[in-house]
Amino acid sequence: MAAEMFKDRLQAKIDDRSAVVGLVGLGYVGLPLAVEFGKAGFKVVGYDVSERVTTLLMQGRSHIQDVSSSDIAALVRSGHFVATTDETALAEADAISIAVPTPLGKTRDPDMTYVISAAETIRRQAHPGLLVVLESTTYPGTTREVLLPLAESVGLTVGEDFFLAFSPERVDPGNPVYHTKNTPKIVGGITPACTELASALYGACIDAIVPVSSTETAELVKLLENTFRSVNIGLVNEMAIVCDKLGVDVWEVIEAAATKPFGFMKFTPGPGIGGHCIPLDPHYLAWKMRSLNYKTRFIDLASEVNSQMPDFVVEKVAHGLNEDRKPVNGSRVLVVGVAYKRDIDDVRESPALDVMRLLEERGAEVDFHDPHVPVLRENGREKRSVELTDDVIRSADAVVIVTDHKSIDFQRLMNHAGLIVDTRNATSKLVPTRARVVTLTSGARSAVVTS
Ligand SMILES: NC(=O)c1ccc[n+]([C@@H]2O[C@H](COP(=O)([O-])OP(=O)(O)OC[C@H]3O[C@@H](n4cnc5c(N)ncnc54)[C@H](O)[C@@H]3O)[C@@H](O)[C@H]2O)c1
Q1: Whose CA is nearest to atom 30 of ligand 1?
Q2: Which among 7, 9, 72 is positioned nearest to 44, based on CA atoms?
Q3: 52 Cα to the center of ligand 1, angstroms
């Protein structure tokens, strides 16, 4: 078949929704995407190596907080979605998106094993006319260097009978306004035909598509976005340390600066950064640039400042306990919120884990409460979220607010805790009652004892 025919045929299948869309990886990124494709009328084949995940999904149960079980159940019932651990199911796919993890190794080098394994799976099921889109965040050059050779090894020619693009996922878990569908999607193909087809596919279920000129551009867009966040969070975290030393309230400084209607964008300090993106993604770029003998100083500096924040928080706890004539060793500390940000259940790279570990290393007895995280499993250990009762709060020598989930009753903490270390400014507008509150930048803000 002539090259144009492969392209036209896939375009027509996208237009009339008869194209079958495969997804490799059904996690935080892959599952919402699968749902959007399914809702747009495509048949979606979701392949995941986790049997637990595929079994749950086939029972109509979602394992991702932002994806409703009723959506999954409806798509499974209507035949628009199948989840399977059988990779041969991907053979019927006309287009396949890859959303597998891209972690960093211990030395902060990219761990490409999941992407390579996904690419090999696709290679085994590939056929002429297939479109493949990589969604996983990675270093510039990955799509061309890792995925393209695998296709070529089975005799497919990119832009002719095989189409390859990169389209970074921008999902913001827990965001009530922006979801997969209404967040503009960047698409960059190896050839113009690849960009066109990938844009057509995503355009069928996402409101706005932003085509760019290459896969490297698309890869770099994602890294710029997340490096921008990392650097700005690093800046305000450093500003918190500066304010602490100067005796100025960093939150007041930021709120006042944010009244400037132009040229300022508000970022807030906190206990450190977490999740699968901000702490990791910039290092993909740093690694790539090291290989080109260039040191990405902003990335390294932001990472250094952000990764020191858990130590800064623990120093605040130690200082606060000290004022109560208590050593950290043997003190009971209640960490409130362990997810890496508000209103989500994801604890990957969460600074709360570092805060808890550092406190335990100093001999503290650490419990946690998180309405979104019933159990924490780390290094073979399991810890359960404790209920936030008045007694539990009162029995803690220090309460550390690490994540300010909306559903937590912070006033209750104020009413019953002795010492609160508030890393999120969650208590600033509450009625000062029993607790002495220590913020990132204040010694003790309130000390009104009523009981
Ligand atoms: N979570 C986010 O907020 C977010 C946002 C934007 C981009 N990303 C990027 O998207 C990618 C995926 O992240 P995620 O958060 O969805 O990860 P995840 O861990 O939630 O999901 C990944 C899924 O892939 C499956 N998997 C692993 N190896 C596989 C293989 N070889 N074949 C098939 N399935 C496999 C896992 O079982 C898991 O279900 C990463 O590169 C991440 O950086 C994540």
Answers
A1: 118
A2: 72
A3: 15
Task: Tokens 């056929």: give the residue.
Answer: 127
> Under 8 Å CB-to-CB from 93, ≥6 apart: which residues?
20, 21, 22, 45, 125, 130
Active site residue 277: yes
d(CA 41, CA 32): 15
List pLDDT tens digits, range 164-195.
999 999 988 888 899 999 999 999 999 999 99
Q: What angle do CA 381, 385, 388 make, to 5 degrees?
A: 155
Tell me which residue of 257, 261, 359 sits closest to 316, measured CA to CA. 359
Question: Does ligand 1 lie within 6 Å of residue 81's CB atom?
Answer: no
Testing ligand 1's pocket by substitution, the residue of 166, 169, 230, 280 carrying the most ligand atoms inside 8 A of its CB is 169
Q: Which amino acid is at 193?
A: A
Positive or negative, the CA dihedral 301, 401, 264, 225 is positive
| pLDDT tens per residue, range 344-403 | 999 999 999 999 999 999 999 999 999 999 999 988 889 999 999 999 999 999 999 999
